[in-house]
Specification:
Shape of chain A: globular
Number of helices of chain A: 11
Largest interface: A-B, 74 and 74 residues
Oligomer: homodimer
CATH class of the largest domain in chain A: Alpha Beta
CATH architecture of the largest domain in chain A: 3-Layer(aba) Sandwich
Largest sheet of chain A: 11 strands, mixed
Order of helices and strands of chain A: EHEHEHHEHEEHEHEEHHEEHH
Distance between the termini of chain A: 45 Å
Strand content of chain A: 15-25%
Radius of gyration of chain A: 21 Å
Number of domains of chain A: 2
Chain lengths: 342, 342
């Protein structure tokens, strides 16, 4: 078991807990014959959910009992101080101890970030970890960071995000030179604030394939591989995008119900709409990376279903296989040698 | 003519210039029998485009010749200094002189804002004007500001935007108590930055129906009437939303072309899709208000078509009828008397 990739799952995290995570775990093992899982949470509950699954390869599952759970709305500071035997904390401890190469949780984002940072520490040279995820674009996907870990960023932070995002995409997508853009505003008046302008200067001198400023719609067009922004802006962009997609889907359902002819058209259009849904399904892109840590931690959406949580597990496995944290660390080391310290 | 509502149109502004603006002007006059227009731009060009329109009520049109045009990519500072006889500048001058009650332009946003601020001045107590527009939501529309005029805002600016947005919606939608929300992030970690937190404190004490923090997706849900944010965040939210909508539309077209059955389904679904398109068409919401000025200035999208530019004209007319700037001014006066100066 020690030669395989091992992922620790915070089984109790998320809106649905073991109902989703254990089923996703079982399917993950079928998809990946050489991977193994550490299921962290209440032992009896996990056993119960496991026994409901047929054909689970129990040899590749180890249960790690945890008697605490971090609540979805718990303060990160309180979770960090009082929940030292939570499923979330123990999953990250397993990465720290080298028993797992990645931890995956659908739990409280703030607590996960705080705990991961406290237990695993950031890579040398990284001041703040960032949350990065892929979003669909017209021809593939775009990675965006930060998505909410850092609501106030200076130019150095944005620069570090750009480097981390670029290395992630190089490794993850086998893309030798990802196009990196800084998210900015399109108003002709005053192109961007001082932070963005200063980050642009650093990137122009720099170590990534920086293509300049991009705007919100560029995330979905396909001309840029890594979009860099502070966590406030990134979170709003992500949530606004989800909101529009939901509204369009809502309107589409309403319009297809308007009258007999529309209902008939809906029947005809069903396979088309199913394919569309699949292409824009946020679950397909579930699994955000907490970048900049000395270890791999993947955040699943709290409301993820079995397929979506499975995607987060796949992201974790791929980051293990591609050795993402070590590659970021190496790039940073080169950079730190080259750059005069700010 | 002096008793009617008069709108000055920057005929030369926008990607399409008089091709769109003059046609939209002619249709606007048919829709609104008591309104009158001042068409500002190259006289010969305007005459030529007008003569191509049939049934135009020339009695309600006055042409104001302008021999300069502000380019779409021109620096606002240079436009302000060197384009004193541009169609944009003269349209705003007409508002200043009381010959028009509103100016509408599809030109360069930055130049329009700089010129409007310079010529008309801000209302007493307002430090910075903001750009505000309506966006569709599941049950109606949501007004969002600022959308790009101010990329760095402090809590006082956000507070002022909230007041201005609330008064706009009170007047515009005959809504006695618009629900006002502050745009914030949903990451559980650290709810918002200091600016947003401090703005929230002021609004909780305050003069609008403040309902608390909202997230990006709330713009499109329908539970809030006015969403307040800085111009950087607002611009990114707007552009990201447009990007997602375009991508979904692109995927939908692709999927409906995949195979004979899908093409057939597309034919059947056409009326449904046309209705959907109409509901989410950004042109329906074209016409952003430059709020906080001593006068009404409406910014049309640069790429607006005739219908969309017509919507911007309708927004201008409604703001005239509802006396929006005076109502904002009155509210501010009350507030300034009540509040200790910061």
């Amino acid at each position: 078991m020690s030669m395989t990739s091992q992922i620790a799952i915070d089984v109790m995290g998320g809106d649905h807990g073991p109902e989703v995570t254990v089923r996703a775990a079982a399917r993950f093992l079928s998809r990946h014959p050489s991977a193994a899982l550490l299921l962290v949470g209440d032992q009896a509950t996990i056993e119960q959910h496991l026994s409901a699954q047929s054909g689970v390869d129990r040899d590749r599952i180890e249960i790690v009992h945890a008697d605490q759970v971090v609540a979805m709305d718990e303060s990160p500071a309180i979770a960090l101080r009082t929940k030292k035997s939570s499923s979330m904390r123990l999953a990250i401890d397993l990465v720290k101890d080298g028993r797992a190469q990645a931890a995956v949780s659908a739990g409280n984002t703030g607590a996960l970030m705080a705990t991961a940072k406290f237990v695993l520490k950031t890579l040398p040279g990284i001041e703040r970890p960032a949350i990065c995820t892929a979003l669909p674009n017209e021809s593939g996907h775009t990675h965006v960071l930060d998505l909410g870990a850092n609501v106030d960023c200076d130019a150095e932070h944005l620069f570090q995000f750009a480097v981390m995002g670029s290395v992630l995409v190089e490794a993850f997508d086998d893309n030798p030179s990802p196009r990196v853009g800084l998210l900015n505003v399109g108003a002709e008046a005053i192109k961007g604030n001082d932070t963005v302008k200063s980050a642009a200067e650093r990137l122009e001198a720099g170590p990534v394939n920086y293509i300049g400023f991009v705007e919100g719609d560029d995330i979905y067009k396909g001309g840029v591989d890594v979009v860099v922004c502070d966590g406030f802006v990134g979170n709003v962009a992500l949530k606004s995008s989800e909101g529009v997609a939901k509204m369009i889907s809502h309107f589409l359902r309403q319009e297809f119900k308007r009258g007999v002819f529309s209902r008939l058209a809906a029947l005809m259009a069903m396979p088309v709409l199913a394919r569309l849904k699949k292409r824009v399904d946020p679950g397909r892109y579930n699994g955000a990376s907490l970048l900049g840590l000395q270890g791999i931690v993947i955040k699943s959406h709290g409301g993820a279903n079995v397929d979506a949580f499975g995607n987060a597990l796949d992201v974790a496995l791929r980051e293990i296989e591609k050795d993402v944290p070590r590659r970021i660390d190496q790039r940073l080391e080169t950079l730190l040698q080259e750059r005069p310290k700010a």
